[in-house]
Amino acid sequence: MALGPSSVLVPASLAMAGFAVGAIVGGGRLVRTYDWETEWRIAAPRAEVFRILTTPEEQYHWWPSMRVVRAAPLPGNPDGRIITYAVRQASSVARLAPPFRIRTITGESESERRIRTVVSGDLVGVLETLLADWPDDGGTRVVFHWYVRVRNPILNLFGFVAEPMFRASHDHVMREGEAGLQRYCAERLAAVKRER
Length: 196
Known about the structure:
The protein is an alpha+beta fold. It has four helices and seven strands.
């Protein structure tokens, strides 16, 4: 007995649908973790850089890709903050994925030295920010250590083949932040000198 085209199409279609559902559900279990470190060199005193990094109300002046949607104090912690961001990715990624949202809770910091932030939303994990003096020029070295994973199972699964694109987007956003903070600090220092 010969098999007709429809007798092969139905099982093949069911198999493809099963594979797609399995990939989506299984994608949540195939966790792709990103462990990225970025270093900035900012020509400004560490106290000023720390103050700006911990003042989200000023962030729109210097880092447009990390748009602050909401900032609130952390209950029970006078130095803590809860901040929601809408993150605009690099254009190479933005064509495939819309801006994503993250919620950060900063409850632990050492003045002018360290900021520890828990990240949730479309990314889940920890951001450790370390600040130190550059010994040669009085500037500040800022090191961001992201240890996160993508929460969306589809994007998580996609990350196994698209990590170079995600990395390029991350690097783009971080370069924009470094250039913006450098410019913003220079403008603020110049304004202080003019006032003297």
